[in-house]
Amino acid sequence: MKIRPTCMGIALALSAASLTTPLPSFGQAASQMPAQARDGTHDFDWEIGNWTTQLRYLAEPLTGSTRWVEYRGTSDVRPLLGGRANVVELSVEGSAGRIEGVSLRLYNPKARQWTLNFASVRNGLLTPPVTGAFDAKGKGTFYGTDTVNERMILVRFVISDVTPNSARFEQAFSADGGTTWETNWIAVDTRR
Fold first, then answer.
1. Distance between CA 134 and CA 39 in Å, rounded?
2. Number of helices (H) and strands (E), helices first, in the chain?
3. Percent of the chain having pLDDT more than 70?
4. How far apart, in whole angstroms, are the C-alpha atoms of residue 65 and residue 129?
5. One-character DSSP codes across 32-46
6. Of 139, 147, 172, 190, which residue is the least packed, with the fewest Cβ within 10 Å?
7. Using an 8 Å Cβ cutoff, are 14 and 145 in contact?
8. Strand pairing partners for 75?
9. For the chain, what is the radius of gyration of the CA atoms?
10. Run of H or E residues at 172
């Protein structure tokens, strides 16, 4: 997915705003947003290591399709910059083919938020980042913008059910400003 030049200004403004303020305009009440006062520098420390990934992906999001494809493979996570960043290498395959990509996560200590950036080897391009934080209970919620079928949409990425040996990753899109969300990516990682 790629932001069209006509949408770039909107995407940059929303992304910049998300670095310093909660995003209740994305359909979330302020009380549901991650606490901004806590230091999240080490929020991803639990994930460092090697994981088996079970992935379900909605092949045609925001079209009314209910066709999910399944993949299985690995995710390998390494710390960078003393834990203030990390990199994830994803390699999964299934009947629909193979997905290989890399996610770079960076911590902004002033905003006390992370940006999650993903690139697929399919096209070598970074998708627009999602930005957010983990709450005191260990649930991470991140928001951003992108385009699907040439329409500007909102993206929500949630990391939940975190234990020392497993975690759930879920992505959803909204084409109506955050009123409704369609989940299109569910991954469950188990430590190898």
1. 10
2. 1, 10
3. 81
4. 25
5. GSPPSSS--TTTTGG
6. 190
7. yes
8. 51, 90
9. 16
10. strand 166-174
Query: Position 59: which residue type?
Result: A
pLDDT digits (tens, 9 = 90+) for 18-27: 433 344 344 4
Separation of alpha carbons 73 and 71, rounded Å = 7
Task: Give the other-Cβ count within 10 Å of 81's Cβ.
Answer: 9
Local confidence band at 38 (pLDDT 50, 70, 90 cut-offs): confident
Per the structure block, which two tokens stand in for 175?
């084409």
- Amino acid identity at 172: A
CA angle (185, 186, 190) in 5-degree steps: 140
**pTM (whole model) above 0.85:** no
Spatial contact of 79 and 48, defined as CB atoms under 8 Å apart? yes
Cα dihedral sign for 32, 63, 18, 84? Answer: positive
Tokens of 47: 């994930």
Provide the Cα torsion 34, 40, 46, 49; round to 10°: 120
